[in-house]
Design brief:
Chains A, B, C, D, E, F: It catalyses: tRNA(n+1) + phosphate = tRNA(n) + a ribonucleoside 5'-diphosphate. Chains A, B, C, D, E, F: Keywords: Nucleotidyltransferase, RNA-binding, rRNA processing, Transferase, tRNA processing, tRNA-binding. Chains A, B, C, D, E, F: Homohexameric ring arranged as a trimer of dimers. Chains A, B, C, D, E, F: Its EC number is 2.7.7.56. Six copies of one chain form a homohexamer. Chain A is globular, with a radius of gyration of 18 Å. Chain A has a single domain, classed as GHMP Kinase, N-terminal domain (Ribosomal Protein S5, domain 2, 2-Layer Sandwich), CATH 3.30.230. The first copy, chain A, has five helices and nine strands. The interface between D and E is medium-sized, with 35 and 35 residues. Strand 9 of chain C pairs antiparallel with strand 9 of chain D.
Chain lengths: 237, 237, 237, 237, 237, 237
């Protein structure tokens, strides 16, 4: 089988991670998975979450510019609420990134990861998590430099990728065309130890068999290993 | 290991599926997984979805009575919006149930599955899917009796269960205590062929290893087989 | 004249008051006036109202499950606001129940009565007040047992019933068919001394004469006496 | 007993009904019950209600200027929703005025009565109904002049007044001081035949006995007779 | 050239400024520019703005009664939000009036100027600023009388007028007909020294040349001088 | 006088206009005025405005990424509404760009200009208009290529700049530091004939005299001439 893009089933799109993309945020990363471009900023605020006495918080918000997509979608600020899809994605990003942070080491502090899609071509949530991690690291390093925190709250590395079955073949990192035509797809978030943080598989058209699920998890594991290498190169560690 | 409830790791809570619980809806099912009680009604409306030219639609809405939980939560109608959690759950229920329906066989028709939690003790979304399926079948049978549709749109059976790792042990069908203290948990939706419709695994505290994931999927497969038997008994098929 | 249901003009529907219907709330009552079923829970919170320096508060919220009615109505949480009807009803329930409570004896405490209609067949607001009273008593008794309050804030008994003129005849406790076809109707809330707490009579079709109003109030007085007996039996007092 | 204002128990405040107060509306009436001033406009639109196939509709909206009251209240347009009180009042005004209109004689037409309180001193809803009736008549006469309707839809006269028990004495037309200190109060809407359209009695402090209710209805009947005379004088009929 | 109204190009409409129009507000002014009628109230509240540590605040809100205009417009409280136009106008009024107040001399105090249009015939925002100034002065004098403030925060006089080019001729104080047909128009806010506080010129149809802009500013200067005289007469200073 | 940035009073910041910045929109322009970066996309939709029978429409929406600014601001989509400032700006952008378009030549078509601020350093609205114009031209050219329109609707060139008085000196193109400390500022929109489309001058601190206003307009005229040259170079015309 050949993919329209010419990629092999286990091949990622070209990944680009550009730090310090804008100047105000403590962490600011433009992440590109092929034509998908997401601007991830990490903002530090000296206030803890209202509903939590001790420790700090890491949270995420997600948005798409109205014309990030093929046809213009309504601006959520104008329609007066965030869609269910938006909320689902930003909850996923927040949970995923919290999995590598010791919240008790952020007393009275909140880090917000804003992930805004400038251009969409499939996989925006996985790009957001992968780029958001780099912005988070930059923000934590800035907090350490400003002596806002005493010990390093970071205890792992997080990246995410999508996998799916397209025309019967399991493939890695679906672009928009593959995503809209696929039989089932899965978003996988992992840490540097190869363990799973989130697994979200969905089949509307074609239910997937156990061995298909296994193949998809194998592909995801491969892809995430590459993404983590790209994150480390971007961070220079 | 022993569970506080006395159940074995692979033991479901007592499952009860009561049809015709209220009188107006085409399908009305009270489903109980132990102390979790969800009222699922299926309502037929003779209007297709606005954004879709042909065929019909199956959708779901989810709600919790304010005092279904240990402490009262704010009524979503009063606060003016559905939370991200609510939207995430109702999108999951809708996608899961659409997986067993041929939407083209429902021209100009919409079936809405309302899942309202009367009492919560963990696993409300999986109970909602499992009970919602039975309400959906009743509504489809009612539509056939009223000659609203020509052919049977139903082409499968759907049920759902939660699994998770509690104190190091993979267990089936977590109750509230287990759920709030677990290291990671997963909601699994399957069809009657043992294939996966949805897999949603989350680890905030403890990332799960591949073999743990495999054990959890095995447990879920067992549990869903039992739930499907209970669905068939309730439906008398 | 005969009513479709076979009831005499002054006959209530079968009344059922079931306490401890769900397990979390301090008071939880399922009240049925015939096919009208309302779940009333009373929740105690250790916070006073923000706008009131001393004493506590008793308030009510009202909701209908979307398919409690003949045709599905839109979920208020999804449409983003409570209808005027909902607000009118919950304000009525709150005012009515506050009429039997000494708020000064609830310092720093709020009791919320949630009335959720599982099945509607006319008279949901009067059922809600009648059942809500029982839930309120249970909650107050629980507060006394937990030593949250020093003296008994309860100083009366409250129940409510609807009356109306159907095809020229004054009748008690209208069901949905009678209610939608009636010439005028009235909701009456009374205390155990036979005094009026609320009287709300409405005539869109046929204005009512003074002697009709008098007959309706007589009928209501009879009906409420029976309801109070049912409340006392349920409470075992 | 003497009232602070010097009025006798059965004495109305000075009533003023000024037609053509603003120039754009088909009916525009400033109604004053003492210091309570409400601007009532009736607007004719050539569209029927969306939810009703035949005939027309008469509806009402109610608002208070933020500083109509002793202390400034939040502007409802700014807070983003109408309060429960506002909705309750505008529903009451609409129902009351529809009671004198044959909606079938208004095919494809909607009349909206806007009642905006410029200055509040108790009794705003009863002033709104009483003045709204006059604006409604003017609008109907304008529709007849413009040949929008074939037959006269008006079949009665409507006015409203408040009554209540203040320091043990039943009194008519409560001003703000009396209203905020009264033991119970009632709003009564009647037609020209002395029949009741709406009766809304409320007792938070002191439940009212049957004979008190009777006295209040007697007072209301007297007051409404006077108001109707004032309406007829204003209309020159 | 002659204006439909018979006015000369540099002639204002009849201006009327009536103080103490309603009784509760610290300042209450009905201002009329011809048929445009705006009720401006100034309300003093003993709370400072939440986002500002020291000093006080002066702010404005703007609204139109639904039938202030030729055809009824939707009530903003009912549609659930203020339009962009409304927000733009109330921000303009607030900024303009703050230009003559020393906010540091209002510690812990907020003055809200509510401008509600009873009848609209063009120029509502300039009438609101001109009348709002008089209400503000009255409120400040009331605060001084009540010893709420130590020194006089007022340091100037503010008025506003519209100018525009109608059929090629620059004219002063456009009414609705002129405004809706004009080629470009400008709202000008000035102080008593003839300096500019706000200049807002807009050309959708016909861009204006520099010399036209100069002529419009000359006209505005003339008009504002007259309005300031009217303000002083109303205030008796 | 010297500006902190080293610029002379009449010197613009470095202007950069980059076309085809994202791939989906008919026009997509990144415009930079120094550190201010705004992404302007023009989207063509084949639907006319609902409220207008003939011709088409050009409209604009404006947004800021939450961390475009020094401190993070709340996401408008999350808070549920666009601020007054946002609405004021997007109305200004829309009006300004409509001034160079013949709407009758766009029958049944809508062009939406989305202006999203990636990084803010003062002057975002003037950058948005200047960049939005280029995106609009690209969209119109695309419509011509796709034969969506018969004749060229474009009849002018539009650009915008801010001017203000900083420490007593009139300066061109204020950056954030200058803007937040300035005595008064003005946004000026002009066309290629040097005529004014919009003039919006505001003085909260220091009212500006007529000769200051004249100097500011002179500066703006100079600046806009340069911006128009940059637009033409970017467009290659």
């Amino acid at each position: 089988m050949s993919r329209i893009s010419g990629r092999t089933p286990s091949q990622l799109r070209t990944v680009r991670i550009e730090r310090r993309f804008t100047k105000h945020a403590e962490g600011s990363v433009l992440v590109c998975f092929g034509d998908t471009q997401v601007l991830c900023t990490a903002s530090v605020e000296e206030r803890g979450p209202a509903w939590k006495k001790d420790g700090g918080w890491v949270t995420a918000e997600y948005g798409m510019l109205p014309r990030a997509t093929h046809t213009r979608s309504k601006r959520e600020a104008a329609s007066g609420k965030q869609s269910g899809r938006t909320q689902e994605i930003q909850r996923l990003i927040g949970r995923s990134l919290r999995a590598c942070v010791d919240l008790d080491a952020l007393p009275g502090l909140t880090i917000t990861i804003d992930c805004d899609v400038l251009q969409a071509d499939g996989g925006t949530r996985t790009a957001a998590i992968t780029g958001g991690y780099v912005a988070l690291v930059d923000a934590i390093r800035a907090m350490q430099a400003r002596k806002l925190i005493k010990k390093d709250p970071l205890h792992g590395q997080i990246a995410a990728i999508s996998v799916g079955i397209v025309k019967g073949t399991p493939v890695l990192d679906l672009d928009y065309n593959e995503d809209s035509g696929c039989e089932c797809d899965m978003n996988v978030v992992m840490n540097e130890a190869g363990q799973f943080i989130e697994v979200q598989g969905t089949a509307e058209g074609h239910a997937f068999r156990r061995e298909e699920l296994d193949q998809l998890l194998d592909l995801a594991t491969l892809g995430i290993r590459e993404l983590m290498e790209a994150q480390r190169q971007a961070l220079g560690v």
